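user: can you give me the structure for this one chain? tokens are fine.
assistant: on it. calling the predictor now.
[tool input]
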Amino acid sequence: MYKTISDRAIFNPAVSTAEGVTELYRQERLLKAGALQNAIFNSENFSGIATDEKGIIQLFNVGAERMLGYTASEVLNQLTPADFSDPQEVIMRAKALSEELSTPISPGFEALVFKASRGIEDIYELTYIRKNGSRFPAMVSVTVLRDAQNVIIGYLLISTDNTARKQAEAEQRKLDQRLRDQQFYTRSLIESNIDALITTDPFGIITDVNKQMEALTGCTRDELIGAPFKNHFTDPERAEAGIKWVLSERKVTNYELTVRARDGKETAVSYNASTFYDRNRNLQGVFVSAHDITERKQAEEMILSLALHDSLTGLPNRRLLNDRLDQAMAASKRSGRYGALIFLDLDNFKPLNDTYGHGVGDLLLIEVAHRISCCVREVDVVARFGGDEFVVILNELDVNNIQSTTESGVVAEKIRIILDKPYMLKVKQAGQEETTVEHHCSSSIGVVTFLNHEVGIDEVIKWADQAMYQAKEAGGNSVRFFGA
């Protein structure tokens, strides 16, 4: 058997001429064309339908029979591909092509092959209707068949069942929609959280935030993403240390920081944080939930203030006085300067309470606190010791005790004079007009100087108290120094 034309020419002298070789080439092309035609006709993988120039089916391959449910004998020389195409889709295609190509196109077979007949590549999707009435999406490619004179003699429509792809696309759309829904629900959950939520990469760079974090910082989400987490806190080193701690321990709770907004506003937050990972357990970063604890902090400060301050006058109470006196002694040790403690008691306070009641007495105590505070420096301390007793701590006097005694005596005398002035107290009782109560109330004052921690806090207070009683026993409205 000859494998090539050359072999046939060599072993067959009858075809060794040029005309013979040309004839052999023609025969081989015919054989190949026939083989191709047989392959198309017998293929079950795609529908092959060949028509004449008017669209009447001339070839209906095995794949077309399988897809459409017709036998070749039922369609050859009888039907066109438009007869088992969705009529509405054919009408819509004709209308669309008429507008696209600015020429009227009939809603039939012409609509299926018009572009191809004009030399325009045409691959489109169309719904085919099987013999049993069932429908399926098909992808159709149209090729024009021409004779040797380039005249159209027919069309070849190659189609594949697009059902599996359509189903896959539908499933993918469902998956995409579920993913979008999940992302929407997740985002909604993040945005509806009352706490500021932040995610960072393992290097502390912000990767996402919610609107609460935007509100805390005064920055937009775009401005925050990509910025270092630590940049938005008053203590960047502590913020950075917090991220490192989470990466080390995988979880951190109640870690307090202060957020600084763009406009300078500061907000105390307590954050809980943990590391998070992808599905392969690869570290992705840190998830932070920061809760605004400003109100809690204010409440704590208020509680502490109430615990350390007199509720009536707002002055430090006895508990805070001890702390401030200890600090004054420590400062005296560092500087070598004396401090002084002034202890005073009002001389004529009880008659006011007995006559007008404790409400009016409270008004006088408030005024006394104000007058004393006006006589001292900001570095000094005025405290209410209890009842109508007040204490003043004078800080950082002189390194010489005599000079310090003189300075403290000047302040004590200033206090005595201002407290000896009449008090005009505005009183308003229920159902009555406001009245003014005038009262005279002097003070007895004791003074003691101290240096370092030569004696204890209680001892200094006791000495000042003793000096005050000396002033009281002398008739009041006077100043006495301990040991003088």
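assistant: here you go. Confidence is low (pLDDT under 50) at residues 1-12. The chain has three domains: 43-161, 193-296, 309-481.
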